[in-house]
Amino acid sequence: MSGELLLSIRRVSKTFGDVPVVDRVDLDVSRGEIVMVIGPSGAGKSTLLRCVNRMEIASEGDILLEGVNMAGEMRNGKLAPDPHPVTARKRRRIGMVFQRFNLFAHLTALDNVAIGPRLVLGMKRAEARALAAEHLQRVRLSQHAMKRPAQLSGGQQQRVAIARAMAMRPVLMLFDEPTSALDPELVGEVLEVIRELADAGMTMLVVTHEMQFAREIGTRVLFMDAGRVLEDAAPQAFFATPRHERAREFLRRVRAAPVG
């Protein structure tokens, strides 16, 4: 970890109607950090990630990536919102992997990974496919490059989705419960790929219900409830001695939940 600030979130809120889903969140993420975002359903975890990459427009607050405001530019003391092409250009720096794989059913795994570099980064077809092949090898799917999504398991499809995001050369990766749609026996292969990205120094925000994974891989744990960050701590400290009663209650329930 370099300690260099990569992402800065300042008093970010998101309301739907009168309901605050994300409530005045502050967060700094340094380059190389792996921030695990946990909490009960409806806590605002996924919405926070979607605000970071502008899939949702924050109701208030600022999000800066490498010092650049994701929402627009300050002009005469006021924020001038970006036009869509500028937002799209800024968003390239952020990779996102969803609960559902969102692959193009008519394309092979190779072309699912190559399509972003071709259409967004302007690479030639051969160059984009070569890059895609590198990333499929990285997630151990070279032998499945010419298969379409329907021919792949859920775990394999999610690994293609990770390769697709990485092919855009992001500086920040967002994972929104990347294993929640998988059968339990397939979870491990996806977590292993995320573990390897962490080992390679990729900066990540990971929304997850995999508590052991959060403890082992995270450099920090963010605990959210009702749209607010109630705890921000090192994994060892959070899981051993959470400070907030709501966090303690959450961990008690998680530990008591039946397996299988």
Compact description:
With 260 residues, the protein is of the alpha/beta class.
Protein model, in words:
The chain is of the alpha/beta class and 260 residues long. It has a domain at 92-217: 3-Layer(aba) Sandwich (Rossmann fold). 37% of the residues lie in helices and 27% in strands. It has 9 helices and 12 strands. The strands form 3 sheets. The chain has a 6-stranded mixed sheet with strand order 8-9-10-3-11-12, sandwiched between helices. It is globular. The two termini are 36 Å apart.
Instruction: Output mean pLDDT.
Output: 92
What is the fold-level CATH name, i.e. the topology of the domain at 92-217? Rossmann fold
Main beta-sheet annotation: 6 strands, mixed
Q: How are strands sequenced across the largest beta sheet?
A: 8-9-10-3-11-12
Top CATH class of the domain at 92-217:
Alpha Beta
Proportion of helical residues: 25-40%
CATH superfamily of the domain at 92-217: P-loop containing nucleotide triphosphate hydrolases
Beta strand count? 12
| Oligomeric state of shown chains | single chain
Query: How many distinct helices?
Result: 9
Global Rg: 19 Å
Helix/strand order, N-terminal first = EEEHEEEEHEHHHEHEHEEHH
Topology:
Elements: E1 5-16, E2 19-30, E3 34-38, H1 45-52, E4 60-65, E5 68-69, E6 72-75, E7 78-81, H2 84-91, E8 94-97, H3 109-119, H4 125-138, H5 154-166, E9 172-176, H6 184-199, E10 203-207, H7 211-217, E11 220-225, E12 228-233, H8 235-240, H9 245-256
Parallel strand pairs: 3-10, 3-11, 8-9, 9-10
Antiparallel strand pairs: 1-2, 1-4, 4-5, 6-7, 11-12
Helix pairs in contact: 3-4, 3-5, 4-5, 5-6
